[in-house]
Amino acid sequence: MFKIALIIALFLVAVTWAADESQATITKYENEIKNDGSYNWEYGTSNGIQAKESGVGSAYAAGSVAYTAPDGQNIQLEYTADENGYQPKGAHLPTPPPTPDYILKALAYIEAHPFTRIQLRT
């Protein structure tokens, strides 16, 4: 009986230790900054987090992040950031509902019938 209790206790300790992400270590780290303002960085951890990015100063950046969420879902996020703003892409991100037909028709009408600007006297 003591052997079974000891085996179960060791198993529980191993499972608890494996789930404790505070013990994660850096397995990969690269960081490069060039004189022209461009840069690259990349890192990985022992608990499966992977991230990388490259860019030019504050003008442009592109990168990706991958990790396992607490619910077990694999998260893969790719992104760019430039003059058009931050643009993330990932299957886990919510998507907007489709644009209703009546809105599409209204937009097509507005495009086909542009408003003539009225000049007011000042």
TrEMBL record:
Span of the signal peptide: 1-18
Pfam family, one: Chitin_bind_4
Keywords associated with the record: Cuticle, Signal
A single GO cellular-component term on record: chitin-based extracellular matrix
A single MF term (Gene Ontology): structural constituent of chitin-based larval cuticle
Origin: domain of life: Eukaryota
Protein name per the record: Pupal cuticle protein Edg-78E isoform X2
Source organism per UniProt: Drosophila pseudoobscura pseudoobscura
